Each structure stands twice: as C-alpha cells, then as structure tokens.
Amino acid sequence: MKTPVRIFLVDDDELIVTMLTRVLKGDGYEVRAMTSLQDVIAEIRSWAPAVVLLDIRLPLRSGIDILKELVEQELPTQVVMLTADDTAETAVKAMKLGAVDYLTKPFNVDEVKIVLRNIVEKGRLKREVDYLRKVHSELFDKDIVGDSQPVRVLKQKIEKMADAAVSTILMTGESGTGKELFARYAHRLIHHDDRSGCLPFIRVNCAALPENLLESELFGHARGSFTDAKTDKKGLFELAQGGSILLDEIGDMRLNLQGKLLRVLEERTVRPVGGTAEVPVDVTVIATTNRNMSEAVERGEFRMDLFFRLSTFYLHVPPLRERVVDIPLLARHFLSVLTKRYNKKTIKSFSPEAEKMLIAYPWPGNIRELRNLIERLVVLESAEMVGPEHLPGWLTSAAAQSSRAAADKFALPEKGVRLEDVEKDFILQALDRTKNNKAQAAKLLNISYDTLRYQVKKLGLE
Ligand SMILES: Nc1ncnc2c1ncn2[C@@H]1O[C@H](COP(=O)(O)OP(=O)(O)OP(=O)(O)O)[C@@H](O)[C@H]1O
Ligand SMILES: [Mg+2]
Question: Average per-residue pLDDT in the chain?
C-alpha cells in the first residue's frame, strides 16, 4: 500500500479544522491539526508533512511570519495559505514569500482537494525528474573518465573556451572517441548548466538527411514553402535558443548548405525556408566530425571559409590507443555502471592478464567499442573475474600481435643514448651473426657493402 500523504492544518477556527480533517481523511490523506501556535514549527519539522495549510490571520502570530520561518529553515514542505479577506494583496505577498498556493475563505471542499492534488502530483513529478536526471547523468554524460595527459589538456581547453563564452567550437576525432561527451561538457560549462539538461542541447546528424530536408530541419520552414509544408515549422537552431546545437558529422554537409550555415554563423540569424523574416538565434554551435577537415578542404568538398570560421576554437579528441592509461579506468567505470544498470553483480574485476590485453588491443572503435565489449561481458559472463579466456578471440590475437610489435620496437632508454654507440652495437651484432661475412651483414642492416666497410673503418671496428 502507498504511504498516505501528510497534511498539516494550522487554523484557530475549530469548525474549519474539523471539517477539513474529516474531508481530507476521507480522501486518504493523513491529517494533523493545530489550533494553538505552541511549537508549530517544531511539530512541522518532526512530522514532516507534504503540505501545510496555514491560516494567515492567527491570534498570536501572523501566518506570514510562520511561513517566513518555514521557508528560512528550508523545511521540505509546501505551504498553502488560507485567507479570509479576498483582497488578493496578502495572498500575493505570501506567494512571493514562498507559499505555493492560497485558498480564500469560505472555500468549498472541492477547491481544497484540487489544490492538494496538484501539489502532490507536482511533488511526485519533481521526484521522478530528479531521479531520472540522476540516473541519466550517472549512465551517460556526467563523468568524463580518464586521467591521461590528452584528456586533461582537452578538459582544460574546454574550460578556457567556456570562460571566454565562445560561440562556435569544432571538434574532430575518430568515431567513438567521446566527441559528443566532450561537446556536452562544453555545453554545460558554457551555459553554467550544471544540473544537466535544463537548457536545450540539440544534436543533428548532418549526414543522415538529404540536403533540402536538413536545411528545413535546421532553419525551419514557412507554410507552403514546399508541398508537405502545411504549417510554419521552427528549425532546430530556434529550438536550441539559449543552449547549444551539436552539428554531428559536419564534414558530410553538402556544399550549398555549408554556405547557408556560414551565413548563420556570421549573422547569428536564421531564415526559415520559404520565409522572409530573419530570426535571431543565440545558440552555441558545436560541430563534430571524424573526417580530416583540411583534406576535405583541399579536395574542394568543404568550404574553406566555413572551415576557418568553425576552426577558431578547435579541439581534437585523440583515439583511445593514444591514451592507454585511460583504458583500465574506463573498463572499470563501464563495469560499475553497467552492472548497476543490468543489476548483474557477478563480474567484480579484470585479471591482470586480461587488463594487459585490453591495454594492448588497438581499439579501432575506441571507447564505444570498449563499452560494448564490457556490456557483453556483464550480460553474458558469470565469472567473478574476467580473464583472457572470457575475451573474444579476435581481441586477444590482435592484442598479442600489437604487443609483439611493441616489443620489437627499440626502446629508447630513459637517459637517452649516443646514436654512434647504437650503430656500433648493431654492426657488431650483424657481423657476429653472419660470422664476419660483410656482404650478408650489410644485407641485414639494409645498407650497401661499401657503406658497411666505410662504417666499420670509421667506427674503428676492424
Ligand atoms: N572519457 C569517457 N568517459 C566515459 N565515457 C565515455 C568517454 N568517452 C566516451 N565515452 C562513452 O563512449 C560512447 C561513445 O562516445 P561518443 O558518442 O561521445 O563518441 P563520438 O566521438 O561522438 O562518436 P561518433 O563519431 O561515432 O559519433 C558513449 O557511450 C560515451 O558516453
Ligand atoms: Mg557522436
């Protein structure tokens, strides 16, 4: 059974108190009443009612005074004022002070019921929104995980751009590197929207729609501007007013539309398709792409002027393989988030060998690929610790290959080397292996016979 909602009555009129108590109890509320003012605040604090019905005119203290105190103490209770005079003035004052509503005496019971029902419903919605917001931010975009140098630098740059309240940002990076996540981070900082999701953040995929549709999607259209345009329609730029618009895959936007976008960025107004009026837009534009933009410009597929306009504030999100220190952090982060999400708590950790493989694997799909892998493990595996045997074969073999490649590389010692010593050492090794056969040794070193002879003499190796 649901716990009943608590209503607290403060009124010196016994008749009203008796009547309301009966009616509200009949409606399933839990009701307490006070006709004297002794300890009224303490009583409200300890009983914690959802709503207080508070008479404005009380014998010892005015209801307004009590309201002030309730608000000051930030008690989580909603106050509805009861007033006898219908001069709206006191009621308005009460609302300004923090009351949610007021009822003018004499009121009928239906009025009271409606006011209470609205308050209770609002409270329920608010709790639901708070809850969803919390889940949403936990699951998706609140935390940028990563402690690598590139991620730290990226965050710092975004913070500086936000301080300067820049209006356009270009973000490049391979697919799945977290461009959208960083874009949302920039959005929140620029608009001081730390409660996440209060200001519009609108994402448009510029590659998904044909040019003319994308245009009316972005800028809106006037009624009758084309066959299907039965009414005026606001574009996404207008809907993002006061917030940000994320132009995803900007590199795939058609040239013609690029020109129109450039105009919007320069004038900060949009003109709906088929319309004449210019609508001012105050929107942060964050464009992202996984294409190499300078190459696209060189090939004539992207307008140079637009590229310059977009790239004043430019950010590159590096691929995961260039920030390997983040791999274990991200793997553990996704493990914790996804076990919660699927309510499957079997997997607790990764074995050191498994972690090594995750680090060695080159992650062509970047963080999205890592997340998907962990999601699969969480749902399908029943071991407590993920070992290499739980990882897909293609991953372990690619990991083995790339660690072999890494091991084959010559490691530069911490303190540096004398290049001449390295040369000497390799020539000696080559001569050693070929039993002093200079022709064969030269082949191993990829140099000519004469060069080898010259080096041997120069380095005093005879
Ligand atoms: N540093 C990070 N910390 C936590 N999660 C991350 C991080 N980077 C990316 N992710 C997650 O990885 C997934 C892919 O990120 P995102 O969608 O931002 O990538 P993208 O660069 O926009 O990819 P695409 O180019 O394919 O659109 C998302 O689920 C995102 O939340
Ligand atoms: Mg994206």
Answer: 88
* Closest C-alpha residue for ligand 1 atom 6: 178
The answer, yes or no, to whether any atom of ligand 1 lies below 6 A from the CB of 144, is: yes
DSSP structural state of residue 106 = S
Taking domain 6-134, whether its CATH number is 3.40.50.2300 is answered by: yes
Nearest residue to 349 (alpha-carbon basis) of 370, 367, 335, 329: 335
List, edge to edge, every strand of the sheet that includes 244-248: 201-205, 244-248, 284-289, 168-172, 314-316
Comparing 15-29, 106-120, 123-137, 402-416, which segment has the lowest mean pLDDT? 123-137
In this prediction the pTM is 0.64
For domain 149-318, the CATH class is: alpha beta
The amino acid that residue 234 corresponds to is K
What is the domain partition of the chain in residue ranges?
Answer: 6-134, 149-318, 321-408, 419-458
Q: Exposed, middle or buried by CB within 10 Å (0-12, 13-18, 19+), for 269?
A: middle
| 396 CA → ligand 2 middle, Å | 27
Tokens of 332: 């553990």
CA distance 262 to 73: 52
- Tokens representing 60 are 């010892």
**pLDDT tens figures, 433-449:** 888 899 999 998 989 99
* Intrachain domains 6-134 and 149-318 with the same fold: yes
* pLDDT per position as a tens digit, 358-410: 999 999 999 999 999 999 999 999 999 999 999 999 999 999 888 877 777 77
